[in-house]
Design goal:
The chain contains one helix and eleven strands, in the order βββββββββββα. The chain has about 150 residues and is mainly beta. Strands 2-1-11-10-7-8 form a six-stranded antiparallel sheet, with no helix packed on it.
Amino acid sequence: MANTKHCLVIALPEGSVQHYLLSAREITIGRSSENSIVLDWDTVSSRHCTLRLRGKHYEVTDNGSTNGTVLRGENVKGEPRVLRNGDSLVIGLNVKARLVSMEEIIDPPSGEEPVDGAATRKLKSTPKLPAMPAINPVAAAVAKAGRGKR
């Protein structure tokens, strides 16, 4: 069975990278310590933007930040914008983020047969093949000797 998980990878201007597994329905991003993700940079507003889970996808909304939020090269203004796998965000002027969607592979519940075409399946045991007949050592020696005389 597969289960989609989302991760936000944030590259900070000084070169470090932070990874966040997104599990909450609402994630706030900003400079204030009250945010889910705290980005202590001058170009990031105290309550910069919000990610909200809608169905299977996250949406981003700019919270009226001073330096804006850019999604796929366009400013996020007004209405929430859907984030897709691989989308890049610029938070403020120089904090870059990328959404990565991952498929989590998990075992099916105990006692339940996996569905054909599932991401992972346990192979059923195959019937054993009949035993091979043993080689007669005398016949093998005669055959070997016969090849050497030619």
